[in-house]
């Protein structure tokens, strides 16, 4: 079989060397190269084999040139012969037909069976790498391989002549046309016995086997209602489905999928129904084709359409004698949501259309007609026997309505009422005949005791049983103050203050049991309550073991009471501050008392080192930098700047720095040595001066202690801040001109002010 695959392009399906090499398409040459590589033969072996087949060296050279030229260009995706046919088909009338179907919208849902011949994954291409089928009928151009082995060894590769014969040695021709492999083997072995006595006889020691080498191609004609009728060259192993696939299958608009006829020698030999394969995987009529067979696709006779809740909505072809139930079976039956009581038929009459309702009882015997459209609806989202119970029952939910169901029976089905059920009133929500809602009140206590008549239920009734908890605000108590877990807790009857303190985790450190206060809401009882007081206050004392006095032990908390537990008057948790920098003992220090100040902290830290630069001291409180003059408060501790210390305060006293940093809109931002004789403007000049974007009159200075001073201007003169070591000189960017430019009235006002001021100055000069 391997050599057959290799040389199939040389013989039948492509003209190959039988014609001019130049007539071969690039795709045919690529197929040959792929088959040759997969065969495992070397290039020399292929050339020798071609020469033995009668091909000239010139033919072989031309083929080699074609192969070399193709190897220098990117090869397209390799396609099987059937896929090549499909590709050509898609480029012609098949694409036109599909466009036409899309434009008209006539096949939505599609015709059942069309996907079988339009899928690229299902080609029905015959498998050529299989053992020789014993029932394969030999014909001209088939290659037979005869292996003689045993005491004698010989190999023959013989092609069947157009007359249907093969020639062995000097023996007379053996006619094998139309024989199966098995029949041909008997005839050939019989003829070879003239050369090998006792061939295949028991004990002879000489045996022979016959197999198929390369197989021939056949020409099959597809006529009738196929997408692309014509004559196609196929493998002799091809079947009817293979031929239909290459031709695009039956035409979806006109072709029958159930009346496909195969003619051989002007005789009808088989009628194929594609539905047998689609519905039952039955290929009994998918016979192997022979040369000059004709496959004829008839017009369809009757088609109907199934829509709605069927598993496979589509257009189905119906044969004579088939009923509606058969077509529903073609579609896989109804879906789980289908309305099964009846279905709707849209039928064409002689003049117009009509609607027919088909009951479920009529479906098994109903005969479809041409053009019928059957619509299967879905069941509605509605229950015919549902009642619901919710609220204070043990198993709330949905239950089935029985013929004599009552409220009491429904409660019993729901495992009865819970202990917290509100018995004075339950409600039944019911829909009237016009679907308006109606609310029915029920005295549940009397009904359950049998003191009143039970109430019959109707479909979609909803019985609601309230609980006491649902009918009142959630009852809680709250505890504040010196307990470990101050929180809100659910109220319980007979709850005492000690119980609540235990729920809150007990007293926290510093709590005093002698100052417990309770605030209670005022309801109706306002006796002895001042007119301007909206709550009642109670005070209690507990000992360390959470015991009340005898008088207070009888006091019980009410819902929504709030309990306040105080701390000792002088109790306070430790608070600390931090001092860093140029002090002998930097670090964290506890605040001794509420009157401790900054100077006292510095003294506790060992005073100041000689390197301390007090002007740059930074005092931070709550993340904010405060302006504190440390030099002044050290000289005069009573100064108001000597602040009281608070928890989290931080003081940093740096070492003196002799540097000045210039930032912002200068040509060369830099760090420069401090020089007392230099002005701010000199420092800016030392950094290259202002840039074109500099906002000169807004220059400001950030001193080492965090203080900020800006440039002042008077009568056109600028007064810069005094320079100090460690400062940052900041030159901001000039805002856009539209933001800084004065309006006309503003310019007039400024000029008037300047003129008036100049007049005042001149007057003063004259007076003196």
TrEMBL record:
Residues 83-109 are annotated as: Disordered. GO terms for biological process: monoatomic ion transport. Keywords: Cell outer membrane, Ion transport, Lipoprotein, Membrane, Palmitate, Polysaccharide transport, Porin, Signal, Sugar transport, Transmembrane, Transmembrane beta strand, Transport. The keyword Cytoplasm does not apply. Residues 305-352, 477-523 form the Soluble ligand binding domain. Residues 132-196 form the Polysaccharide export protein N-terminal domain. It is a multi-pass membrane protein. Gene3D superfamilies: Outer membrane lipoprotein wza domain like. One of its GO terms (molecular function) is polysaccharide transmembrane transporter activity. It is found in: Cell outer membrane. It comes from the Bacteria. Residues 219-297, 386-465, 575-653 form the SLBB domain. Belongs to the BexD/CtrA/VexA family. PANTHER family: POLYSACCHARIDE EXPORT PROTEIN GFCE-RELATED. This is Sugar transporter. It comes from Larkinella humicola.
């Amino acid at each position: 079989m391997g050599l057959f695959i290799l040389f199939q392009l040389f013989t039948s399906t492509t003209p190959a060397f039988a014609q001019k090499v130049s007539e071969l398409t690039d795709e045919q040459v690529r197929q040959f190269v792929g088959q040759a590589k997969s065969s495992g033969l070397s290039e020399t072996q292929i050339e020798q084999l071609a020469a033995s087949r009668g091909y000239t060296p010139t033919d072989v050279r031309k083929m080699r040139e074609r192969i070399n030229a193709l190897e220098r260009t990117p090869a397209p995706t390799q396609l099987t012969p059937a896929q090549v046919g499909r590709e050509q088909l898609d480029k012609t009338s098949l694409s036109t037909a599909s466009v036409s179907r899309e434009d008209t919208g006539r096949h939505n849902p599609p015709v059942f069976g069309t996907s079988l011949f339009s899928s690229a994954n299902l080609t029905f291409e015959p498998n050529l790498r299989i053992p020789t089928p014993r029932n394969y009928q030999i014909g001209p151009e088939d290659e037979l391989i005869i292996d003689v082995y045993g005491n004698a060894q010989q190999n023959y590769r013989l092609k069947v002549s157009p007359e249907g014969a093969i020639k062995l040695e000097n023996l007379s021709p053996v006619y094998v046309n139309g024989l199966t492999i098995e029949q041909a083997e008997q005839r050939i072995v019989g003829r070879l016995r003239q050369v090998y006595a006792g061939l295949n006889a028991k004990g002879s020691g000489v045996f022979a086997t016959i197999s198929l080498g390369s197989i021939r191609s056949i020409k099959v004609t597809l006529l009738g209602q196929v997408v692309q009728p014509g004559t196609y060259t196929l493998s002799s192993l091809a079947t009817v489905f293979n031929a239909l696939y290459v031709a695009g299958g039956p035409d979806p608009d006109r072709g029958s999928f159930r009346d496909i006829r195969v003619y051989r020698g002007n005789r009808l030999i088989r009628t194929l129904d594609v539905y047998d394969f689609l519905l039952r995987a039955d290929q009994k009529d998918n016979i192997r084709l022979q040369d000059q067979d004709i496959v004829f696709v008839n017009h369809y006779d009757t088609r109907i359409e199934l829509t709605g809740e069927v598993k496979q909505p589509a257009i189905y072809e119906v044969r004579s004698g088939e009923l509606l139930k058969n077509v529903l079976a073609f579609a896989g039956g109804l879906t789980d949501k289908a309305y099964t009581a009846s279905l709707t038929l849209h039928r064409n009459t002689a003049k117009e259309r009509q609607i027919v309702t088909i009951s479920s009882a009529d479906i098994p015997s109903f005969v479809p007609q041409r053009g019928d459209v059957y619509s299967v609806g879905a069941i509605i989202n509605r229950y015919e026997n549902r009642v619901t119970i919710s609220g204070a029952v043990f198993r709330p939910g949905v239950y089935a309505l029985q013929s004599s169901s009552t409220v009491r029976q429904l409660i019993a089905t729901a495992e009865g009422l819970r202990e917290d059920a509100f018995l004075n009133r339950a409600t039944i929500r019911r829909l009237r005949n016009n679907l308006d809602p109606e609310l029915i009140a029920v005295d549940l206590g009397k009904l359950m005791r049998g003191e009143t008549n039970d109430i019959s239920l109707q479909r979609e009734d909803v019985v609601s049983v309230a609980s006491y908890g649902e009918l009142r605000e959630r009852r809680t108590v709250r505890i504040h103050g010196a307990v470990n877990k101050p929180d809100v807790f659910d109220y319980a009857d007979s709850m005492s203050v000690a119980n609540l303190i235990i729920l809150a985790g007990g007293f926290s450190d510093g709590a005093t049991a002698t100052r417990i206060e309770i605030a209670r809401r005022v309801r109706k009882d306002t006796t002895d309550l001042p007119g301007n007081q909206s709550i009642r206050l109670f005070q209690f004392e507990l000992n360390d073991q959470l015991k009340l006095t005898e008088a207070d032990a009888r006091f019980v908390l009410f819902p929504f009471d709030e309990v306040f537990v105080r701390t000792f008057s002088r109790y306070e948790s430790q608070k600390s501050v931090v001092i860093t920098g140029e002090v002998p003992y930097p670090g964290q220090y506890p605040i001794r008392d509420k009157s401790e100040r900054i100077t006292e902290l510095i003294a506790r830290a060992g005073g100041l080192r000689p390197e301390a630069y007090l002007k740059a001291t930074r005092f931070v409180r709550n993340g904010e930098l405060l302006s504190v003059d440390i030099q002044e408060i050290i000289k005069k501790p009573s100064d108001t700047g000597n602040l009281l210390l608070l928890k989290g305060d931080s003081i940093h006293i740096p070492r003196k720095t002799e540097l000045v940093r210039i930032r912002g809109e200068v040509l060369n931002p830099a760090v420069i040595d401090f020089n007392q004789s230099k002005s701010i403007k000199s420092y800016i000049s030392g950094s290259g001066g202002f840039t074109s974007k500099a906002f000169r009159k807004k220059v400001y200075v950030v001193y080492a202690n965090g203080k900020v001073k800006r440039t002042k201007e008077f009568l056109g003169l600028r007064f810069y801040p005094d320079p100090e070591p460690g400062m940052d000189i900041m030159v901001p960017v000039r805002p856009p001109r539209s933001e800084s430019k004065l309006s006309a009235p503003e310019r007039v006002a400024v000029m008037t002010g300047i003129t008036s001021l100049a007049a005042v100055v001149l007057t003063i000069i004259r007076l003196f």
